[in-house]
Amino acid sequence: MNYVALLAFTAFALGMVGLGVAGLTTGWIHPWERGRVLRPAAHGFSHIFSGCGFFCFCVFFLFESSGDVSPKLLVVLAVGAVLFLIGTVLRGVASFPDR
Predict the structure, then answer these.
(1) Cα–Cα distance for residue pair 51/24, rounded to 1 Å
(2) Which pLDDT score is estimated for 80?
(3) Alpha-helical segments (H) within the chain
């Protein structure tokens, strides 16, 4: 059951990256976010960074479930946290108006 949930979360993370790439190349934004997003490029990058960070979390928990946590996996977890944080900041930047 663990692996089924990790597979679903991994698919979600890769879908976020795909939406970010679509947003960068075409300028497409979700219909429910169109009123709030003022910078489409920052919005696309936020999806890419958040998706990559979430994917790193999924990789960590995939290998952590076997019980062997190496320092390399902790680096993957830290990189995932930083990428997710950058994506969150960029999401705020995307909705902040210019002056």
Answers:
(1) 14
(2) 95
(3) 2-26, 40-64, 71-94
Residue 1 CB partners (closer than 8 Å, separation 6+)? none
Q: What is residue 19's DSSP assignment?
A: H
**Cα atoms in the 13 Å half-sphere on the side-chain side of 87:** 22
The whole-angstrom separation of Cα 90 and Cα 17 is 14
Please measure the distance between the N-terminal and C-terminal CA atoms of the chain and give it in whole angstroms.
50
Return d(Cα 4, Cα 70) in angstroms, integer.
Answer: 23
Its sign, for the CA torsion 44, 89, 17, 75, is positive
pLDDT in tens, the chain (99 residues): 678 998 999 999 999 999 999 999 998 898 888 888 999 999 999 999 999 999 999 988 888 877 777 888 889 999 999 999 999 999 999 998 876
